[in-house]
């Protein structure tokens, strides 16, 4: 029996994948379609379907991606420009009967009013009840960050998390210089205005600029930017020392120095796409 060598395998891979298109030499019986859904804002990744599959089989496959029961689906085939071409109503017909092409779309209309995707339940996390622990219950826990932090502060009133991390790395901790200029970073703040979309370092945390200013009691000297994050990646609800500066849910607000803020075209991103890098010392 003859076995394929490394060069043979590489040649086969190059033939199947092709030089540029990813799967240039795909089977002629398949088609690559984008999937959209009546109840979902997200546009699903392209799905490769067999032209010989019945519409019923296509619906079953789409049900695993959309959560819609096949019996509640109405499928519409659209061209690259989004123009409807055909209603795929006959479950017994083959997908190829409708002559779909790569780049076309299949729109799934969910006719079930009790569907799990209705009303944004599969996308809008604000609709999901979240567990909240009271301060009293949290204080009863034997091992918690709050208790550990208080223990460290009792030993060293100047303790900070940054100082602790430097100690664990075996390096000398150098505290950031105290800002004494009330106009600190004014040159950077002038280019940031309320209402702009932004990205905040570290971690490319996306959000909207809600406040730009200085001289607020509870904030160190210099200019600061108030941000309402798209995800709960902040430290507060837009308040400083109990004073409400802007509206934000708890954990969605934060105040950062202007040098940590980039403004421009920064749309919301997938909350699972990036790992949180941690918060810096120049953030409140």
Automatic annotation (TrEMBL):
What is an annotated GO biological process for this record, any one? post-chaperonin tubulin folding pathway
Record's InterPro entries? CAP-Gly_dom_sf, CAP-Gly_domain, TBCB_Ubl, Ubiquitin-like_dom, Ubiquitin-like_domsf
Show where the CAP-Gly domain sits: 215-257
Q: Which PANTHER family match?
A: DYNACTIN 1-RELATED MICROTUBULE-BINDING, TUBULIN-FOLDING COFACTOR B
Query: In terms of one coarse class, where is the protein primarily found?
Result: cytoplasm
Q: Which GO terms describe its cellular component?
A: cytoplasm; microtubule plus-end; nucleus
Give the protein family. Belongs to the TBCB family.
Q: Where in the cell is it found?
A: Cytoplasm
GO MF annotation list: alpha-tubulin binding; microtubule plus-end binding
For this UniProt record, give its keywords in alphabetical order, as a comma-separated list. Chaperone, Cytoplasm
Pfam families in the record, alphabetically?
Answer: CAP_GLY, Ubiquitin_2
Q: What is this protein called?
A: CAP-Gly domain-containing protein
């Amino acid at each position: 029996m003859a076995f394929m060598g490394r060069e043979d395998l590489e040649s086969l891979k190059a033939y199947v994948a092709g030089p540029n298109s990813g799967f240039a030499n795909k089977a002629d019986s398949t088609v690559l379609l984008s999937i959209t859904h009546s109840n979902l804002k997200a546009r699903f990744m392209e799905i490769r379907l067999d032209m010989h599959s019945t519409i019923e089989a296509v619906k079953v496959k789409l049900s695993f991606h959309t959560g819609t029961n096949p019996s509640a689906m109405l499928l519409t085939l659209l061209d690259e420009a989004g123009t409807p071409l055909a209603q795929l109503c006959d479950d017994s017909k083959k997908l190829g009967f409708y002559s779909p092409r790569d780049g076309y779309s299949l729109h799934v209309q969910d006719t079930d009013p009790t569907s799990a995707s209705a009303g944004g339940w599969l996308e809008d996390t604000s609709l999901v009840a979240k567990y909240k622990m009271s301060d009293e219950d949290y204080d009863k826990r034997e091992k918690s960050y709050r208790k550990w932090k208080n223990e460290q502060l009792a030993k060293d009133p100047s303790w900070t998390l940054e100082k602790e991390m430097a100690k664990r790395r075996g390096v000398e901790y150098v505290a950031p210089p105290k800002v004494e200029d009330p106009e600190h970073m004014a040159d950077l703040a002038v280019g940031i205005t309320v209402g702009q979309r932004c990205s905040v370092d570290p971690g490319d945390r996306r959000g909207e600029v809600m406040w730009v200013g200085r001289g607020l009691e509870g904030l160190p000297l210099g200019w600061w930017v108030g941000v309402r994050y798209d995800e709960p990646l902040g430290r507060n609800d837009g308040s400083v020392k109990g004073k409400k500066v802007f509206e934000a849910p708890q954990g969605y607000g934060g105040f950062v120095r202007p040098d940590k803020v980039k403004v421009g075209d920064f749309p919301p991103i997938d909350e699972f796409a990036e790992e949180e890098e941690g918060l810096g010392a120049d953030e409140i």
